[in-house]
Amino acid sequence: MYENLNSMQREAVFQTEGPVLILAGAGSGKTRVLTHRTAYLIEEKGVNPYNIMAITFTNKAAGEMRERIDEQVGYGAESIWVSTFHSTCVRILRRHIDRLGFDNNFTIYDSDDQKTLMKDICKRLEIDTKIYKEKTFLNAISSAKDELLDPITFALQATGDYTKQKQATVYREYQDALKRNNALDFDDLIFKTVELLKTDGEVLDYYQERFRYIMVDEYQDTNTAQFELIRLLASKYKNLCVVGDDDQSIYKFRGANIYNILNFEKHFPEARVIKLEQNYRSTQTILDAANGVIKNNQGRKEKALWTENPQGEKIDFQQFETAYEEADYIARDIQKKVQSGDYTYKDCAVLYRTNAQSRLLEERFVVSNIPYKIVGGVNFYARKEIKDLLCYLKTIDNARDDLAVRRIINVPKRGIGATTLARVQEYANQEDISFYNALRAADEITTLGKAAAKIRPFVLFIQTMRSKVEYLSVQELLEEVIEQTGYVKELEAEDTEESKARMENIDELISKTAAYQEKCEEEGTPATLSGFLEEVALIADIDSLDENQDYVVLMTLHSAKGLEFPQVYLSGMEDGLFPSYMSIVSDDSVAELEEERRLAYVGITRAKQLLTITCAKQRMIRGETQYSKVSRFVREIPRELLTGAVRQEKVKKMPQQETYMQAKKTFSAKPFAMPKLGKDLPKAGSVEELGYGEGDRVKHIKFGEGTVKGIVSGGRDFEVTVDFDKVGTKKMFASFAKLKKI
DNA sequence: AAGACCGAGCTTTTT
DNA sequence: GCTCGGTCTT
Q1: A527 Cβ nearer than 7 Å to chain C strand
Q2: pLDDT tens string A675-731
Q3: Is there contact between A268 and strand B, defined as CB under 7 Å from any strand atom?
Q4: Which residue among A75, A225, A231, A527 is least packed, with the fewest CB closer than 10 Å?
Q5: Which of residues 85-104 of A touch strand B (CB under 7 A)?
Q6: Active-site annotation holder among A248, A307, A556, A609
């Protein structure tokens, strides 16, 4: 079992005791090392799986590690604690945060909620948000928490600096408000856990005993608070194994402290350092390119990545006149590769520096009928309709979250306006009760007058729902909220493309509640409303990537970290875009350019077989045409590795706006969701092959019987509109629907 | 209280 | 170029 590891990997696996730093270059098989190490601990060292913890940054990474550990470890794998920093902390806090004066059923605020709360506070403190931006405050608070500065310490450090003093005041107010709402923001999850472990010896002892062997993935991305958390937990047994690559540290803006990895041996003098330098992922050419770029950075740990893989193809470098041509080239190139039969869509990934770049690519992909998935941008759970419904559930779950209540009290419209809200709030402050409790006492608020009558049904509704929490499933609760509020009915009445998309999202949310139920039953854990809300709060977009589906993935370089693809396109490689203009003109431009360079390194090393680098001479940014030179990072790649050179393409016809909109409409909310591989993919073929036509009566497995109203060819599949007798008109893809003529 | 209209700011990256 | 938020009107 350990024979197919190389000597360094084996060393990392066998070094189980004491602090270990594994410097794992890109593609050097670190996940393999971690999983083998876990197996070794259990099977050879007799360690109880219950005493092992593995921490990652994303749910996806945690899920993958879980899967591979399960494969590797057979018995007892399920009691190993594998999870992200954030969910680890939530699990700890749910049990013990009452010791810090919070309720154990606290809610978690996302960035949207934070902003709303901050606006509130600025208003209350009469801060002119034209001069002092909410966002700046939130950033300051976030960095403070990353550095474990509480409001008092922060204030002490602010003496003599007016802006900082102001931030200190806001910080204190912000924390007070969170506590009143029984809520924590993302950063608090870590901060409060550290606080808990530091102040409560009993809890600390419990978790130190439990986590005798700790492993941390992507260690270069940890911030000070996360480091402290790990340090506290590991300080008793000192069996701490961290894996990382300083060359892939790209989250400085999020507080990641690169010195956690650079100074690991200082923090743990007895630490063993093991370097994994053999790359199993990429061709020699790709590796040479990556090394050519990263060697321009100073102050990195000395590493020499090498591979036994073949030289491989040269890097395809293309410069275009415009960003349209660039997008067009990428789309055609992918189509060409797929049609040749050598690759599938899911072998390809397009990476870019900023999310805004995805639009042009998306347009081109829609026109070319290429199935794709965009990772990032607006998170599913940040969409308005989803947040609204979740806030209903949150209100039912935790009455102290004022924010959630205020969001939904007039959605859908109940004729409760700003004035009424202000009066209720005033009463709440006066009586020192929560906003919701003030609503419950609406009849006592003399200033309300007739408005009290509008509040009563809302309160009654929430109270009734609360009494049902015990015996209804999450799905049933959600469906009842939708039914009782008429939320979907209102969208139905709107009958626009947008409202349809929203309804689809709501359906998606319902299936997520069902999936949650299923998951809990599988794991044998109780499915609760709080549990669902919590899971939902900690989901990132990248977690939804599904390797089994055949689509091209589009995402930012940041999101791509930890992933690999046979075919990688690095688009928009222009000075000013990547490296970003901000990093070039910054006061600290040397450091910021190094961070950008690491990002380039991450991008290049995602590729297994072929790397394509593209850029455009002109592109629209923020409604303005920008003219840019080829990125300096491209020039750092040894010339002989590149083909294509600077190329002059004739301007291709721009996509007709109408064609695009039409195409996009056909596939509205969920473009090109594809059936799982393995099942036979129905070919587009002809309409006849469907076995039914317009006007025919058909049967659907879930919706029952109905009449076919229309069939539209979507290129690779047909979109069929059916008017069902029971559930009304639905649009669906023929390959999914499996409609039967009757 | 609800809807229409207009201007500001944004785009570097996110658990 | 687009989105969000604020203000004005009914």
Answers
A1: no
A2: 222 223 333 456 666 778 888 888 776 567 888 888 876 544 577 788 878 767 776
A3: no
A4: A75
A5: 85-86
A6: A248
User: What is the DSSP secondary structure assignment for residue A631, as one 8-state letter?
Assistant: P
Residue A519 half-sphere exposure, CB side, CA atoms within 13 Å?
11
Question: DSSP letter at A283?
Answer: -
Catalytic residue among A192, A337, A606, A619: A606
CA distances (Å), origin A452, targets A417, A440, A441, A500, A670: 12, 10, 9, 34, 42
Return mean pLDDT, chain A.
Answer: 84
The whole-number Å distance from A130's CA to B7's C1' is 14
For A536, list phi and psi in degrees, rounded to 5.
-65, -35
Pairing state between β A278-279 and A306-307: parallel
Dump pLDDT digits (tens) for A505-544: 888 888 888 888 988 888 888 899 988 888 887 777 666 6
Beta carbons within 8 Å of A202's beta carbon, 6+ residues apart: none
Catalytic residue among A146, A218, A245, A328: A218
pLDDT of residue A606: 94
Closest CA to A609 of A344, A293, A281, A308: A281
Who's near A709: CB < 8 A, 6+ residues apart? A694, A721, A722, A723, A729
**In sequence order, what are the residues at sequence separation of 6 or more whose Cβ sits closer than 8 angstroms to the Cβ of residue A201?**
none
Residues A627-650 have pLDDT tens digits of 888 999 999 999 889 886 544 443
- What pLDDT, in 10s, does the model give residues A6-51? 899 999 999 999 999 999 999 998 888 999 999 899 888 989 999 9
